[in-house]
Design brief:
Blueprint lengths: L10 E4 L5 H9 L9 E4 L21 E7 L9 H20 L4 E4 L3 E4 L2 E13 L2 E11 L16 H5 L5 H20 L3 H10 L7 E6 L2 E10 L5 E5 L2 E5 L5 E2 L2
Helix pairs in contact: 2-4, 2-5
Length: 251
């Protein structure tokens, strides 16, 4: 059991499901779902990744969870604050479990070790007026898998990073503890600290990298982020702003 006050105190274990995010949304359709409830499965038949991608995972090897949050303190225009907090929490957890320092966040919310993806995040928000009513935070963390399809982007796992096998339940405990810490930071309006830590942990910030936008490749440096979380790139002698799905860094 994680050392938390509410994240992970209720865990629903499923042998398989189409998507833990879908299951969480179904739960939210009923009354009495506690904030911090975790849905975990050994196998997803239709796991969802960011930007409509499919999340591939070997059965019983990785951590596949969705966490229900109720961030009614956030306005819709502030939803990237939640993305930053959760991304930091996952990166913090990976660094703590692996005891490795070179763990970074690739904008907006992939977690990398060096240039290889170790975790992906999909946050789905439901809104009421200008307020975020509830959020389903889907996380896929590669733990003990060592063989990944060549068709997906460069991937790694905690086992590949360290040479060790990990207990999935203990990994979940650490993840829940880190998510609660960052979420409580956000709830207490420590947004500037979260933003500062996010930028400090952003992959290739202030370094030249290759990006793709509108089917064209170009070199640029990450110059910063807008308040809405859009990426500001320094391209040549000008700054260009890109929204989600409009640009991709080439790893």
């Amino acid at each position: 059991m994680p050392a938390t006050t509410f994240i992970g105190k209720t865990i629903i274990e499923l042998p398989y499901v189409d998507s833990t995010n879908n299951y969480a949304h179904t739960l939210l359709g009923s009354k009495g779902v506690f904030e911090g409830t975790v849905i975990r499965t050994d196998h997803q038949t239709a796991g969802k990744g960011y930007s409509g991608n499919k999340w591939e995972s070997e059965k019983e090897k990785n951590l596949l969870v969705s966490i229900i949050l109720k961030p009614g303190f956030l306005q819709v225009k502030q939803q990237f604050f939640l993305t930053q907090a959760i991304s930091l929490a996952v990166a913090d957890a990976v660094a703590a479990i692996s005891m490795l320092n070179d763990v970074k966040i690739k904008w907006p919310n992939d977690v990398l070790h060096r240039y290889k993806k170790v975790a992906g995040i999909l946050i789905e928000n439901s809104v009421q007026g200008e307020i975020i009513l509830h959020s389903v935070v889907g996380i896929g963390l590669n733990v003990n898998q060592t063989d990944f399809p060549r068709t997906i982007k460069p991937s790694t796992s905690l086992k590949m990073m360290t040479g060790k096998d990990f207990d999935l339940r203990k990994v979940l405990d650490v993840l829940c503890e880190n998510i609660e810490y960052r979420y409580l930071q956000l709830r207490s309006n420590q947004v500037q600290e979260i933003q500062k830590d996010y930028m400090k942990n952003l992959y290739r910030v202030d370094e030249e990298a290759v990006f793709i936008a509108d089917n064209s490749r170009f070199n640029a440096k990450i110059a910063g982020l807008t308040a809405e979380g859009k990426l500001v790139l320094h391209v040549g002698d000008q700054h260009k702003v890109f929204g989600f799905k409009e640009v991709e860094m080439v790893l």
